[in-house]
Write a structure and sequence with these properties.
Length: 424
Amino acid sequence: MMHASRQRWIPLGVALVMTAASALPALAAPRKDEALWKAAEAARPEQLKLLETLVNIDSGTGDIEGGTRVLDILAPRLEALGARVERVPAEIPGLPDNLVATLKGKGKAKILMIGHIDTVFEPGTAAKWPYSATGDRATGPGVGDEKGGVIQAVVALEILTARGFRNYDTLTLLLETSEERGSPGTRALIDRLVKSHEVELNLEPGDAPDKITVWRKGSSTFNIDVKGRPAHAGVAPQEGRNAATELVHQLATVDTLPKSGDGLTANLTIIQAGSRYNIIPENARAQVNVRVRDKADLERVQATLEESARNTRVPDTKVTVSRENSFPPLPENPHTEALAARAKAIYAELGRELGTGGNGGASESALAHEAGTPALDGLGPVGGNFHTDKEWIDLTTITPRTYLLMRMIQDVAARPPKTFRPAG
Ligand SMILES: [Zn+2]
């Protein structure tokens, strides 16, 4: 017992809790893996050098020479780790091979990381807008989407392997080359890999201020094609049936759909009509990029556009609506949420708070989820203004995100999440 005169009586219950709490410091304070952190810090200068090298290589989707050069730089580093490195031909013509690096370990988990090395930028962009770093920001074509994340994965594998981490059955890195066009060159490969692994970690960039991605919209492109009749624009314009004018009419319907926000969005992205200034246009086409959280919204958009197509204003024109699905949505779901909670706990080891969120950008994670493989996205460095010449990343997130990825791999290796394969 404690001294009376100076003693204060503490209720028994409170005393018990305090004793228990003092006995549980480990649980209360997530402990940082100092050695792993130091290794990530040590890797940083070279990591940034490699990022500069890869960003300064144009690898827009379909740039076979550029894409192959990027993979030729990364392949030997992965081979040096003992990975089996395969160059898997793309599933459609006009694309560089994909790369699959597979490490075999002594554990039981099957872990898949997916990244893409293609960007949305045209050949010649890197020469005009090379990688540059000012203060805490780096800019350049694809610096965030997605070369920062791809390099982070390679460095993470190098550090983990150097530290003797083998607690997995299979640790696979897919570097694909057509994500920015909906992965038409990688669908069968992605399908095979997500079905043969228990978890997918995606290297898309994180959203500011410091978030990972737990939902994504699906992406589809609607084509509105108008068939009219050509005529001499001077001599006999009345003989023509102007496809461009009709398309403008159809676009009035598109204009009624939401253009921004967390739900359905429909944005006109490409419009083509006419061949010569002195000919009434026979053909016209518009492409509308539609993003949805709920697939049913795609049917609603289809019905709206088809209804409009039946009500043409220019006589004798014919309007057809078609659709190309890129990626399905990654819906908010308990499997991704559970992985996100593990990531938050890991980030807390660094004394950092990890946010979660979603966005209209689509990715392969939705395909993993559809196959019943728990998926987590947005694990790459934080950045913004993707798909523009203002694209940037926050350099202060490079090492924390590399640490996060390594620890996530260790964490899911020790406790693989349950898959939820769809019936049939
Ligand atoms: Zn991307």
